[in-house]
Amino acid sequence: MGTMEGSPRSGLSSPEAKLGMRVEDLWDIMEPQLSPTEKLNACFESIPVSAFPPAPSNQAIEIKSDASLGEAVQILAQHKILSAPVVDVDAPEDASWIDRYIGIVEFAGIVFWLLCQSEPPSPRSPSSATALAAATNGVNAEFEFLGPESAASTNGNFFEALTSSDFYKNTKVRDISGSFRWAPFLALQTANSFLTMLLLLSKYKMKSVPVVDLGEGKIENIITQSAVIHMLAECAGLQWFESWGTKRLSELGLPVMTPNRIIKVREDEPVLQAFKLMRKKRIGGIPVIEKGSSRAVGNISLRDVQFLLTAPEIYHDYRSITAKNFLTAVRSYLEKNHENCPLVTGMITCKRDHTVKELIQLLDSEKIHRIYVVDNDGNLEGVITLRDIISKLVHEPRGYFGDFFDGVLPLPQNSRV
């Protein structure tokens, strides 16, 4: 279990820290009668998103619309990224960004889409062949077989058969564009403000925001929730950050998610039940609860769904893929291959009396997207996500977005932005 000890920063010399100094300069000249929250809003409204440090080179990866699902998964896995913009290969050279891109394809989206077209126990079975043929003709067969016996029927062979099928190899990324979050996706222009970006990543639930260069018609940067948390971690020691970051979680109304509202999965339930719940409830992670208690023994996140396609061989020694067996198998696989992943670290928790600063430093150092709040006995008291933290940093002024979303709608019903 992780602790809340934050490591000291190595000085304010990183691009993120320099950005924090820019906020500090603005903070110092703000009207004294403004509240701290109003000051931060005004500071972030004064800085364009073009000032945000560029994403790592692997986040500049784009996937062509005529790539197969198999090729897309390979690209995402090779570059260790969870999503990438999809470029329309039929768009003219001088196309605007809105015509150049058809959306963002996600690792989890590919897996869920595939599973929704399949039926157990294997894509090679007659019933599954029928489902796959129906899917090819545009008929979606809902993936609803997750009963008590499902863990036994969905073993490694199921996923190996799925990834070796012609359906997986021949279906193009553009063929599943209807499942994309935005079509086309929502992007910011370089002149848009930090405040706009922070609100999209919090209140409007976007995991990442592309920034486009209108002149080039191309994506210039991709800003993620994790990148914002890293920026905040690098700002430790600055007055504006300390005035906010030294507050205890309970002072800011965290956690927002209370114990009775946390979506959970028992350790003996099928791991697919965890992924299905995440998809249905539109959440990014779910705690695995010890059988017969309310103690969390692990966490499964949407990013972990990649192992269903990239490493199905890890399940061969298991008669069933329960949540517990999934955690055990993937941890063993990662350790054997010397790969770093939050699943290897185990369950990381905090207490209500910790500060936002401590929480930010832990989330940043461990590269995780959520942390569970527990009592002294390890029982769950709540969950705090990156989005929750960002939402406590800024607020949306009345009528702020105006017609900003025009042209992006209509959205899929109940779409997770």
UniProtKB/TrEMBL annotation:
CDD domains xref list: CBS_pair_SF
Record carries keyword Repeat: yes
Statement: the UniProt record of this protein carries the keyword NADP: no
Signal peptide annotation: none
Record keywords: CBS domain, Repeat
Domain of life: Eukaryota
Residue ranges constituting the CBS domain according to the UniProt record: 56-122, 257-318, 343-401
PANTHER family the UniProt entry points to: AMP-ACTIVATED PROTEIN KINASE, GAMMA REGULATORY SUBUNIT, CBS DOMAIN-CONTAINING PROTEIN
Name recorded for this polypeptide: CBS domain-containing protein
Lineage: Eukaryota, Viridiplantae, Streptophyta, Embryophyta, Tracheophyta
